[in-house]
Design goal:
Blueprint (H helix, E strand, L loop, with lengths): L13 E4 L2 E5 L12 E7 L3 E7 L2 E2 L10 E2 L3 E8 L2 E4 L3 H7 L4 H10 L9 H17 L2
Antiparallel strand pairs: 1-2, 2-3, 3-4, 4-7, 5-6, 7-8
Length: about 140
């Protein structure tokens, strides 16, 4: 017999898994009626977030008698002024920071950052650069 702890997501605003911080934007009155947790990658003027997804696939056979789960997928978002912008591609990211597009491209080339395969550290470095640019231009 295993004990199971079930938490009410309306009362959990954040939690940690190892060194990964997750937040529930609903509890911060940012996104109404949305109980989803996002990994917080970068905190500054904007939040850079990562949403993980895994779906249950109803395939029952000898290999998967209890069904199986899809491979893990994720989506990147920038949280700015109470809304979420999906930035799952380099093009979408550059569109979000359109006024610094050229500088960001140059920074990414210089630091060899490939957006699609960027590590958490590279994304933090990129967001820090964008944060500094936005402060300089204000």
């Amino acid at each position: 017999y295993k004990r199971q702890l079930v938490l009410n997501s309306t009362f959990v605003d954040s939690f940690y898994l190892g060194n990964h911080a997750f937040i529930n934007l609903y509890n911060q009155n940012e996104i109404p009626h949305q109980f989803e947790y996002f990994e917080k990658i970068y905190t500054g003027k904007d939040l850079f977030l990562k949403k993980y997804r895994k779906k249950f696939i109803t395939v029952y056979n000898n290999w998967y008698p209890d069904g199986k789960y899809s491979s893990q997928q994720y989506t990147y978002y920038i949280h700015y002024r109470g809304s979420l912008a999906k930035v799952n591609s380099k093009k979408a990211f550059l569109s979000f920071y359109d006024s610094y597009r050229k500088e960001i491209r140059k920074f990414m080339r210089k630091n060899k950052i490939k957006y699609k395969n960027a590590t958490k550290e590279e994304l933090i470095k990129l967001m820090t650069f964008c944060h500094v640019k936005s402060i300089q231009n204000n």
